[in-house]
Amino acid sequence: MVERSRAVDGDLPEAFYEPLGGGRFASTPATAGPWSPSLQHAGPVAGLMGRAFERTDPVPGTRVARVTIEILSPVPVAELEVSARVVRPGRRVALLEGELTHEGRPVVRATAWRILTAPAEVPGTVHAPAPPPLPDEGRTFTTPGLHTHGYLSAMEWRLVEGSFFEPGPGTTWARSRIPLVAGEADSPLVRALTLADSASGVGSQLDLAKWMIINTDLTVALHRDPAGEWLCMAASLSVSPRGGALCEATLADGHGEFGRVLQTMIVDAQPTP
Question: What region holds the Acyl-CoA thioesterase-like C-terminal domain (predicted)?
Answer without folding.
Answer: 136-267
